[in-house]
Amino acid sequence: MPAPTTPQLAATAARRDRLAQRIAAVGGGVAIIPTAPERRRNRDTEYAYRFDSYFHYLTGFTEPEAMLVMVVGSDPAAAHSVLFCREKNAEREIWDGFRYGPTAARETFGFDEACPVEMLTSRLPELIGNQPALWYALGYDVAQDARVLDALNTVRAQGRNGVQAPADVRDVRTLLDEMRLFKDAVEVDTMRTAAIISGRAHKRAMRATRPECFEYEIEAELLHEFRRAGSQSVAYNSIVAGGANACVLHYVSNDAQLRDGDLLLIDAGCELDGYASDITRTFPVNGRFSGPQKDVYELVLASQYAALEHARPGQTYDTTHDAAVKVLAQGMIDLGLLSGSLDGVLESGSYRRFYMHRTGHWLGLDVHDAGEYKVKGQWRALEPGMVITVEPGCYIRPGEDVPAAFWNIGVRIEDDVLITASGHDILTIGTPKTVSDIEIVMSDVDDRR
Ligand code: GLY
Ligand code: MN
Ligand code: MN
After folding, report:
1. Given 412, 415, 416, 439, which residue is catalytic?
2. What tens digit of pLDDT does each residue of 402-425 get?
3. Among the CATH numbers 3.40.350.10, 3.30.70.270, 3.10.350.10, 3.30.420.40, which is that of 6-179?
4. What is the C-alpha radius of gyration for the chain, rounded to an integer number of angstroms?
5. Spatial separation of the C-alpha atoms in residues 149 and 383, rounded to whole Å
6. Entry pTM
7. For ligand 1, what atom is nearest to the CA of residue 391?
8. 56 a catalytic residue
């Protein structure tokens, strides 16, 4: 196998080795990991291409029409990785740009073998034959399923020639999800850079915000900062939600005018080299929090600090949530949003009227990243190398029994957090967060960008 040409590609080769070991440890077999298809947006126009996350994790190869096949057998040391990809094509490259072609792809990315994607139909049955199991994400993409099942049936038809078809089809994601949960050094570096870019974008948005401007103008500031720093995309559609829109959890229209005296909630993060960042900040449109806004903001911030206390090895994913909920519930009682005792509010779940989502999720190649949250029915312990978001919020819709001063206040504060051996490392640490940090950034008119 040729040596991969960059530290990033060396990391993908190391992940292939680890996958081979894991496959061998549970009986061996052959893994098939296709990349994502191109998707039409309308007529002859396509969406910006985004590779499949599992495929990218194992290859770093960003072209469409590609597939990784890892023939592991039962000996990981003898594992053989084959990339299927588009051939070089002078004509298509004039229209669509550079493609590696199998020869350069093999040398650059460090595969044992690379073949034109047109050879899949003939080669796939041969690679699958006589393997104890087929490791494949069946049901994720019907077109790929058809291709893989065709190959499987072709092998089955060769039974009289002494070729055996894999007896089991097993979900390769069960192995890859667990690997993806623990970020290697290259992944942490990329995620830290993505977080820094997104933090800068939030700061730029704070400085650009004025009463009367439109949510989309602020969205444009975010996108400007993401792209100028080299990120390829947003990690998810940005939420830029002024006033009451902040209480719509998946608000995406971003087309309302911002009003003096309202808050603006921004949930936005860039994707860098496949890795997501995911930051929420909430700040006053006019640069100064009102009394009730500050009350709610300080409550959500206190709940985030409480959750972060539990973001360390040995705690579970769920304890961060419980810690945030406890602080939020007490605060809701203190602010007159809820009545009763803390135990009563926790027991009845009445706090969910104002806090209806969980406090975080795994973060990585996907914004809601791969990985089980429970193992054998128990919330899993946090371990070094995991990355989570910590994102409590409080969303107060108008109601007769709700003090009017709090109506339409929606606050969420979200950071990206790497679990380390000694606790945690907040990747988004540079993003202004306290009331005074935010008010200083927003008053700094001479330093607007
Ligand atoms: N931006 C998606 C989320 O916070 O989960
Ligand atoms: Mn999130
Ligand atoms: Mn978010």
Report:
1. 412
2. 999 999 999 999 999 999 999 999
3. 3.40.350.10
4. 25
5. 38
6. 0.96
7. 4
8. no
